[in-house]
Amino acid sequence: MDLGLKGKSAIICAASKGLGAGCAAALAHEGVNVTICARSPEPLAARAQQIREQTGVTVTTVACDITTPEGRDEILRACPAPDILVNNAGGPPPGDFKDFSLDDWRQAVEGNMLTPIALIHATVYGMIERGFGRIVNITSASVKNPVAILELSNGARCGLTGGVATLARKVSRSNVTINALLPGMHDTDRIKQLLKSRADAQNMTIEQARQQMSADIPANRLGDADDFGAACAFLCSAQAGFITGQNLLVDGGAFPGTL
Q1: Any residues with CB less than 8 A from the CB of 121 and at least 6 apart, and which?
Q2: What is the model's pTM?
Q3: H/E/C letters for each residue in 207-225?
């Protein structure tokens, strides 16, 4: 299927590895010129070169901390009028409510709620004027089913979800959509941290923890960046213009609910 994206431009945050990299690669394969950012310049440059070689599109890199105003200014200077925005940031650390300070909560909200909102505010009105826009917020399956050790993430990502729900309906008449992708357990650095936490807590090896985690997923495996990127590319497609304000689980069937 031709997704109707050739020649479009996209900002993809935290795209040097993991789910962000999967989204960048999938969009690039559809002919989208991508601007990608991450904190570490070397992995970012390596990922950009890989995407260029595989797709031939223009790949612009911005090494920055997207959770800061300066970082957001940098990426918006590099791509001031994106057709597509994929919001993504590393999740807050796991832990227990009793151990979190107010500063921990502030950092979680800054990174996983306010940063995406700031980028949406900076880009969505240009999308409206041009009559096309796709915004995808990478949140978490914990928005639907809270994870006990991820209380910081649960709260901040639910805040983002609620914060843009009305906006998604307002802008849809201009062929601009705002949706969220809710990853379950994917084989990323984030999951490797969670596997280590589980292994330490239950006195098992990391491989045993991985097998246990996979057994809890109906698909009987962890997801990968390609799975996730393909879902992102479809939500950004011309064909997905009637889908907005939705929270799409990409979790191998792990969410234990009918709706």
Answers
A1: none
A2: 0.94
A3: HHHHHHHHHCCCCCCCECH
pLDDT at 243 over 90: yes
**Angle of CA points 142, 164, 111, to nearest 5°:** 60
3-state class (DSSP) for residue 236: coil
Buried b (16+ CB within 10 A) or exposed e, 48-84: beebeeebebebebbbbbbbeeebbebbbebbeebbb
Residue 247 in 3-state DSSP? strand
Largest separation between any pair of C-alpha atoms in the chain: 56
Q: How many CB atoms lie within 10 A of CB 218?
A: 12
Length of the chain: 259
What is the SS3 assignment for 238? helix
Q: Report pLDDT for 259.
A: 79
DSSP string, 158-215: HHHHHHHHHHHHHHGGGTEEEEEEEE-SBSSHHHHHHHHHHHHHHT--HHHHHHHHHH
152: closest CA among 92, 89, 90? 92
Bridge partners (DSSP) of residue 33 are: 9
One DSSP character per residue, 111-126 reads IIIIHHHHHHHHHHHH
Whether 190 shows a pLDDT value over 80: the answer reads no
Cα of first residue to Cα of last residue in the chain, in angstroms, is 28
